[in-house]
Amino acid sequence: MDVHQYQPTGLLKFNKQDVALVNELLRFMPASPFSKDFRKTLNEKLSPFLQADFDVWLENIEILKPHQLKAKMPPCTALVEVGLPPKSNTLLLELDLALAQQAVDRILGGQGLETDPDRPLSDIEEGIFTFILLKAFDLCQNSFADEMGIQLQLLDQSHNLDSLLPEWSDEEQLYVIGFRVFMDIKVGYMRIILPERLLKDTGLLAPPTQGPAWERLKTKLLDTFKMLDDTLFPMQVEAGRSELSLSDLKELDNEDIILLESTNLQVSGEEISGEVRCTFGSGVRGYLRSDLQISDEGQFQVMVQDIIPISPPTHDTDDGDDESMEEQDEHNESGSEEVEENLDETKHLLEDVTVPMVVEMGRLGLTAMEIAQLRAGAIFELGREPGAGVQLVVDGKHIGEGELVDIEGQLGVRVLSLHRGGSN
């Protein structure tokens, strides 16, 4: 029997910029108005007019070109152009025509039973449909648009995309957020169509840091943390760091002594005191500035003094970078068949390469909720006595053990043992 490697076909393709924007949209949605409380308020606002319960759920996000969007839409629909002053770009909102007809019929006293997918809304029906939209817009304005510094403005209505297509080139990337809409037992769809430039140029997806949007996001985060309440996340306690060249690392051996270049600990006789840094994960977004103390039991403990945020590193994802990365991938692939060192010429370059070695005094596990509840003054016991060994960590890998030493009044570490292979 012949066995061949499976080659998947028909996979959706995304570029890195698409992925970044879609992920930003998904991160934005929990902080958006489409939360449980908002939907409850929306139902309370619309149900007296519709004589029906109303609800909306996020379903999916697609990336389409204008011609793809046109092919996806039915020939006759309920389409609205929405302005966002002072932003210059507009978005489109499409509602299932059958649902729009049912909503209008219910407001006029009917049962919303008869629909015609080929019949656009009449002028009178468009007026009533506008009334429904303005009620929803009013709630959205008070719930989130004001805090985002925009106004929701109904600009135009149409029954097809041809007569309402904004000034979008055919190469414009459109991010289409799909919702499932419920009106009693009737189910339909709604789409919000956002041009790429609206998302990139207006900063509408900037993560909230205060106000009602932050409160909504905080509630969502706390609900997520409760799901992870039994999961422990390691907190690393750093005594200090030193930059080692690759040759230094190669020649490192037992009993070697390394001066800590970056540390806030002081040595006085046999006592060590000062500040340590406590981090979670990669530690690139923040750390706990903490005091190193001795507990009544004679073991190290840390007291949190402050929670220090750090701006995360940014990554440029424009087309030029994508092209250069693709060229780099091709270069890597072309050179993967035969790899030959060239140390005769590159050894001097390698001498400029350094790696940070972290001296870790302890590691303990906290749940997500415990992390969320951290405050200045919190105390964590490290379970280590003064004089106990420390861990040597390079690039997240545990490479050995050491002990803290005094080097003419400065803190250092003596290597006790090394694991050349490294472990996580």
Can you walk me through this structure?
- There is one protein chain.
- The protein has 424 residues and is an alpha+beta fold.
- It folds into 2 domains: 16-224, 3-Layer(aba) Sandwich (Chemotaxis protein chec); 231-310 and 353-423, SpoA-like (Surface presentation of antigens (SPOA)), CATH 2.30.330.10.
- The chain has 11 helices and 17 strands.
- Strands 7, 8, 9, 10, 11, 12, 13, 14, 15, 16 and 17 form an 11-stranded antiparallel sheet that branches.
- A hairpin with a 2-residue loop joins strand 15 and strand 16.
- Helix 2 runs antiparallel to helix 5 (123-148) and helix 4 crosses helix 5 (123-148).
- The radius of gyration is 30 Å and the shape is elongated.
- The two termini are 41 Å apart.
Keywords:
2 domains; Chemotaxis protein chec; alpha+beta; 424 residues; 6-stranded antiparallel beta sheet; 11-stranded antiparallel beta sheet; Surface presentation of antigens (SPOA); elongated; 11 helices
How are the SSEs placed, and which strands pair?
Blueprint: H1 16-28, H2 36-50, E1 54-64, H3 66-72, E2 78-83, E3 90-95, H4 97-107, H5 123-148, E4 153-158, E5 174-183, E6 186-195, H6 196-201, H7 211-227, E7 233-245, H8 246-251, E8 257-259, E9 264-268, E10 271-280, E11 286-294, E12 300-309, H9 319-334, H10 343-350, E13 354-366, H11 368-372, E14 379-381, E15 390-394, E16 397-407, E17 410-423
Antiparallel strand pairs: 1-5, 2-3, 2-4, 3-6, 5-6, 7-10, 7-13, 8-17, 9-10, 10-11, 11-12, 12-14, 13-15, 15-16, 16-17
Helix pairs in contact: 2-5, 4-5
